[in-house]
Amino acid sequence: GDSVTQMEGPVTLSEEAFLTINCTYTATGYPSLFWYVQYPGEGLQLLLKATKADDKGSNKGFEATYRKETTSFHLEKGSVQVSDSAVYFCALSTLPGSARQLTFGSGTQLTVLP
Amino acid sequence: NAGVTQTPKFQVLKTGQSMTLQCAQDMNHEYMSWYRQDPGMGLRLIHYSVGAGITDQGEVPNGYNVSRSTTEDFPLRLLSAAPSQTSVYFCASSGPDSGNTIYFGEGSWLTVV
What we know:
Helix content of chain A: under 10%
Distance between the termini of chain A: 41 Å
Structural class of chain B: mainly beta
Shape of chain B: globular
Helix content of chain B: under 10%
Number of helices of chain A: 0
Shape of chain A: globular
Order of helices and strands of chain A: EEEEEEEEEEEE
Structural class of chain A: mainly beta
Oligomer: heterodimer
């Protein structure tokens, strides 16, 4: 079945540091890939997505590139801020043209220190 | 601009009790779902619905019932609560006008003692 493997946390960085959170996947067909973010006490919000190979999703300074050859979708940000402290989830959907059923990774807790 | 609304936000139940988690969306989304979030396991799909009158099981459906009598509402029922159902529950919805992006509620924290 489909699965998503995320870099284990927690991750602690200083403000303005470079962030990478690794995500690899196993799926049949050609999945769409997503990063969701969960701030403390809140629900999940879509951060970015990519629907086909070599697509780059970007939002709020975060980027991730859909790499079919390495089945990866690593999340990166050049300079993190304290406000980026949250849990980040990588997810995939294999339903064509839809994000209806998501398979999630286990989440990575990020803490950014001032 | 309510989006996906879940109630209650916090609940403590005794083993064997039943309860219903409410979920409502005001975006006219056809697709709704329930996930549970457990430490180190991400979110897992419990049940989902592709429209009023239609429901189906997800990855972890045992111990839960759902119904979809209207487009707006998708309640999740715990028939006889067990400590293993202690979790955070998220309702979600999506539709073609949202680009099929899934929108999540703020979560319901349930503790079964």
